[in-house]
Amino acid sequence: MERTSNWFFINLERTSNWFSINLERTSNWFSINLERTSNWFYINLERTSNWFSINLERTSNYAHQTCSPAIQSAHKLVLHQSGAHIKLVLYQSGAHIKLVLHQSGAHIKLVLYQSGAHIKLVLYQSGAHIKLVLHQSGAHIKLVLHQSGAHIKLVLHQSGAHIKLVLHQSGAHIKLVLHQSGAHIKLVLHQSGAHIKLVLHQSGAHIKLVLHQSGAHIKLVLHQSGAHIKLVLHQSGAHIKLVLYQSGAHIKLVLHQSGAHIKLVLYQSGAHIKLVLHQSGAHIKLVLHQSGAHIKLVLHQSGAHIKLVLHQSGAYIKLVLYQSGAHIKLVLHQSGAHIKLVLYQSGAHIKLVLHQSGAHIKLVLHQSGAHIKLVLHQSGAHIKLVLHQSGAHIKLVLHQSGAHIKLVLQQSGAHIKLVLHQSGAHIKLVLQQYGAHIKLVLHQSKAHIKLFLQQYGAHMKMVLHQSKAIIKLFLQQYGAHIKLVLHQSGAHIKLVLYQSGVHIKLVLHQSGPYIKLVLH
């Protein structure tokens, strides 16, 4: 279905057990996959077998990400975006899909091959000209569509239901009624000017589709009983509201976007995850609940102001962090290791109170202006830590015999190079930061993850990047094991929390008054 006034296009396909929608408009360029050329906003939502991923990007500057999930999922996604240029390559071995999309300005070339349903789709659009060729071996469909201006020529041949359809349109008024008894399809389409109303009902795959478009206003409702999908999309200008429910993987997704304002709600019953994200300019509010590890995380950021609340029932941790400029107040209570920590800093003045009954800690801290020398020895977990800071230069070496960790950190000004090797979980982490620019490479041998969201049962790893506030949030949870890394370039905060049973490692760095806190 196509229109030449504002250029509206829907490609609706379903073979065996998968379903896809490609929705595009050339006025603001809207699609699912979802794209907008004003600030370039893109969402790729995928699920294969037992894992679910969201890749969320907004790139005022250049953005490039490569995703390589676990080998057993055999899924590879490469996205390159520079300005208005997008190149997307997707390979998935399970359903055998190879997708290549290149967009530069209003020009799109799309090639899709899927071996399961045997589909090959080529779409080229340049301005108002569309040429579409579709071949599907399962239902034996060959479709050729050419449109130039307001003229459409359509030839459709399907051997299963024995349909041959030729449509020529010159003008803006179309009324089309199609009934096919084999697949039980009833289709009604009325188009007059910019107004489209489309109703499609198919009893075989149980699809009900309602689309109304008037100008820039789109309302789309899709229900499919086979894979149990319910999709509601409303778009009016820059305002988008999207609701997706799928009973197979138990996913409920609600997205509302109005300009720079995003509200996202995700519920997945398999891993028991509930995620709420609200973003308005530089303001982010994030709520995450996961029933497996019993984590509730609330993050609010407004400019340089951060309020973070973390509650985990397994290790009984409640953490509250408030930062405003150079002022930090941190309260940590953990019932397992009996730790109560209160830190208040204002300017170069630090007041630190630490009480731990269980692990026998000896801590020596000297601070004079920006010069800090810290020596920590703990007999329980066998930690020896030496930290020397003079001005903005920090060199930190940490060796811990229990978990076999070797950590080297060198910081000079805004330049940070961090190398972490941990033999237990086989993690090698390299972080290079220059100002607001971050390059992070993480390799973990078991899950084979590179900067993505991957969920296996109760295991989750999340990376969130937001270009204005420059926030990178990393959360990994394995049973009761949590590793949390938060970086914010405004006030230059880096927070690392590792918890395994009753063992806690907390690192806090703030570049304003130069604070580094390590707690084990």
How many strands?
48
Helix content: under 10%
Summed up, the helix count is 0
Total number of domains = 2
Low-confidence stretches: 1-520
Summing up helix and strand content along with how strands pair, one would put the structural category as mainly beta
The averaged pLDDT comes out at: 40
Radius of gyration: 27 Å
What separation lies between the terminal Cα atoms? 61 Å
Q: Profile the largest sheet.
A: 17 strands, antiparallel
Strand content: over 45%
Morphology:
elongated
Written overview of the protein:
The protein is mostly beta strands and 520 residues long. It has two domains: 2-268, no CATH class; 317-519, no CATH class. It has no helices and 48 strands. Strand 43 (459-466) and strand 44 form a beta hairpin. It starts with a strand and ends with a strand. 21% of the residues are buried. Residues 1-520 have low confidence and may be disordered.
Structural topology:
Blueprint: E1 2-3, E2 8-15, E3 18-25, E4 34-36, E5 41-48, E6 51-58, E7 63-67, E8 75-82, E9 85-92, E10 97-104, E11 107-114, E12 119-126, E13 129-136, E14 141-148, E15 151-158, E16 163-170, E17 173-180, E18 185-192, E19 195-202, E20 207-214, E21 217-224, E22 229-236, E23 239-246, E24 251-258, E25 261-268, E26 273-280, E27 283-290, E28 295-302, E29 305-312, E30 317-324, E31 327-334, E32 339-346, E33 349-356, E34 361-368, E35 371-378, E36 383-390, E37 393-400, E38 405-412, E39 415-422, E40 427-434, E41 437-444, E42 454-456, E43 459-466, E44 471-478, E45 481-488, E46 493-500, E47 503-510, E48 515-519
